[in-house]
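Researcher: Next sequence.
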Amino acid sequence: MFRNEIIKLNHEQVKQILKSAPDDFLVVEINGERIQTWEQYTLTIEKNMNFPTTCIDSIARYEDWICDLEWLAKRGFIIVIYNFDKFMKNNPRIKGTILCGFEELILPWWQSEVEKCSPRKVSPFNVYLVD
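Model: Next structure:
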């Protein structure tokens, strides 16, 4: 059984993981240096995950969409945040909110809870933080 988690890796480690990622996984790569606001983050996620509506004004909507993803028809999800030390450098509260959302809601949802509340199946979903 897989384990959904947030993992800190170096560039070589993440390169190997991405090289071996199955074709039916969605991989979203983010340059953390370019993401300094909630708006920049959500716009990047919305675009790469093809959200049906915007989430700029709603953390709850962002969490709803990222816990749905039905329209993608993917078996697993990988988010890589490069330059994590520079990600949200001047917004540590928002950075913490994003990470907490993954740890407490999104990753557990895809690990097991999804099958209790929807017709979707559990899915691998990992977040890799790279400095």
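Model: The chain has one domain: 6-130. The first strand starts at residue 6 and ends at 9.
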